[in-house]
Design goal:
- The protein is an alpha/beta fold and 276 residues long.
- The chain contains 10 helices and 12 strands.
- It has helices at residues 21-32, 47-56, 81-84, 104-115, 131-143, 155-164, 206-211, 226-233, 241-257, 263-274; strands at residues 9-14, 37-42, 61-64, 78-79, 91-95, 98-102, 124-127, 148-151, 168-170, 180-183, 214-217, 238-239.
- Helix 1 crosses helix 9 (241-257) and helix 4 (104-115) packs across helix 9.
- It is globular and about 60 Å long.
- The relative contact order is 0.14.
């Protein structure tokens, strides 16, 4: 990485509880590609002021994580179709003071469902109703999944999300099972939204894991969440949040820099990101 200098381009991330994933991934690619760029994670105390700082300081790119993916919509100038279609933002690109919002979470979910060849005939349980859940449910609909249930304690958010895509909502799992189960909540996240209180919790009960054909956890930290560990122990194919993190971060990198790294460079950055 170059020594800090006045010509260096800055990209940042905003999250209530930042991890080093994006920082390590992006900075490793900058170094491999000999770019005079740097990436830094922040936990903003005031989101509106933080976004004003992105604009006013000429910060090139800004990744948006929980719980800000919907709140930033009012603070940007333009919504790319990837974000507008689901009213959720995970990426902001600053071009000469004009902020355009994107959503690369959707791209990541879409790619992983396809590359893992998850049959669209599977019934699906999606637990969560926030910004990442919107990207997930939209990707499921667009991939051709028809039997999807959104599980969310917040009836307003859960029902609205399910209704938007023609799916069902229910408040709790209540003994339900499906071929594909997806956790899109902070349950199992190290230092998650509850301060780590749910870091060791299972997002789905063991009975649902045993009944599933594929288990998907979007939580990226740790890479092996309690849900993923339980699914592996039960012999189930898994899709991990670490995979989501790599794909969405790669697409952010391309949006920020205009450069698409080689597959080998991405693998090296991914390995560096995970070796923390």
């Amino acid at each position: 990485m170059p020594i800090l200098n006045k010509d260096m381009t800055l990209c940042i991330s905003l999250s209530a509880r930042p991890s080093n994933n994006g920082t390590r991934f992006h900075n490793h690619l900058y170094e491999q590609l000999n770019l005079n760029w740097i990436y830094k994670a922040f936990a903003p105390t005031n989101l509106e002021q933080a976004i004003a700082g992105v604009r006013g300081l000429g910060i090139r790119g800004c990744a948006i994580s929980m719980p800000y993916k919907e709140d930033v919509i009012a603070l940007v100038d333009e919504m790319d179709p990837s974000a507008k279609a689901i009213d959720s933002v995970n990426t902001i690109v600053n071009t000469d003071g004009r902020l355009k919002a994107y959503n690369t979470d959707y791209t990541a979910i879409e790619q992983l469902l396809a590359t893992n060849k998850v049959p669209t005939s599977y019934s699906v349980l999606v637990q969560g109703a926030g910004g990442m859940a919107k990207a997930t449910v939209a990707a499921l609909r667009d991939a051709g999944f028809a039997d999807v249930t959104v599980i969310a304690r917040n009836e307003v958010a859960g029902r609205a999300l399910a209704d938007q895509y023609g799916f069902r909502w229910q408040e709790t799992l209540d003994g339900g099972a499906a071929g594909l189960i997806i956790n899109v909540t902070p349950i199992g996240m190290a230092g998650g939204m509850s301060g780590g209180a749910e870091a060791d919790a299972l997002a789905f009960p063991q009975e649902a894991i045993d009944a599933a054909q594929v288990v998907f956890d979007v939580v990226a930290l740790p890479a092996e969440t309690p849900l993923i560990k339980a699914a592996r122990a039960a012999g189930k194919p898994v899709i991990t949040g670490a995979e989501v993190a790599t794909i969405q971060a790669l697409e952010q990198f391309v949006l920020y820099t205009g450069v698409r790294p080689t597959a080998e460079q991405v693998r090296a950055a991914e390995e560096f990101m995970r070796a923390q």
